[in-house]
Amino acid sequence: MSTTTLGVIGTGMVGLGAARRAVDAGLSVVLSNSRGPETLADLVAELGERARAATPAEAASAGDLVIAAVPLAAHERLPRAELAGKTVIDPMNYAPNPDFEVPELDSDELTSSELVQRHLADARVVKALHNIGPKQLLELFRPAGAPDRTALPLSGDDPDARKEVADLLDVLGFDAVDLGALADSWRSEPNTPLYALPYVGQPPSGLTAKEFVAWVQQAPGVPAPVARVEELAAAAVRGPAGFRME
C-alpha cells in the first residue's frame, strides 16, 4: 500500500489506539492534539522511533492518510486547508448533550460523517474505526487469511478513498466491509447491531449507558468475520441518531 505515514489528530483513547496499532504494524505516525506537541513527549518516547509529535496542521500535512480522532463537537476545528486533498478517516460518533445537539443529525437528515464531509469539503472523508473499541483494536488484529480475522466496516463517497482505507485496515490486521456512501454510514453507527457488540459479545444486563461504555473499554475482544459484519449491516434499521450517556 502507498500509506507509510499516518497522521493522527487527537490522542484520546481512539487516536492513541490507532497510533499504537499503526506503529506495531510498521507504519510511521505523526501525533497531534489541541494542547501542543510538547505534551506528547512521553507518548512519543513510548511508541519509539516511528512516532513523532506535531501540531494538528503539521500532522494533517505529513500524513498519507489522516485519522481525525477528535470529538464530533470539535470537528469544525480540524485544519481544513491542510486536509484538502487528503483521505481523512472519521472515527467520530454523535453523542448529543445539552451543549452539543445538531438538528440535522437528530432528524436523520445527515449522518455524522456527512456533517464532517461538509466541513472538510476538499478532503475525502471515510467513516472507519468508529465501532470498535481501542482495546479490541489492539487484540483482534490477525494476518491476512487467518480464519479468525475480524472485519471492520467503512463508508465514503469516494471509491478510491474507501480503497485506501481498506488497504490501511489490511495492514493493521483487519478485513474491510464496504458499506458504500457516507449516507449509508448509519448502518454501523451507535444504536445499530454493528456498533461495539460484535467485537465484545453480550454485556451484562442492567448496565447504564456509562457502565456499558466502561464495560466495552475493558471487555476482551471477540472476532467478527466478514460474513457477520455484512449480515449485521444488512439487518440494521435506522433509528434515533447518536449515543446518549443519560
Automatic annotation (TrEMBL):
InterPro entries: NAD(P)-bd_dom_sf, P5C_Rdtase_cat_N, STEAP_metalloreductase. Coiled coil: none annotated. The keyword Metal-binding does not apply. Keywords: Oxidoreductase. Residues 6-94 form the Pyrroline-5-carboxylate reductase catalytic N-terminal domain. This is NADPH-dependent F420 reductase. It comes from Streptomyces atrovirens. The lineage of its organism: Bacteria, Bacillati, Actinomycetota, Actinomycetes, Kitasatosporales.
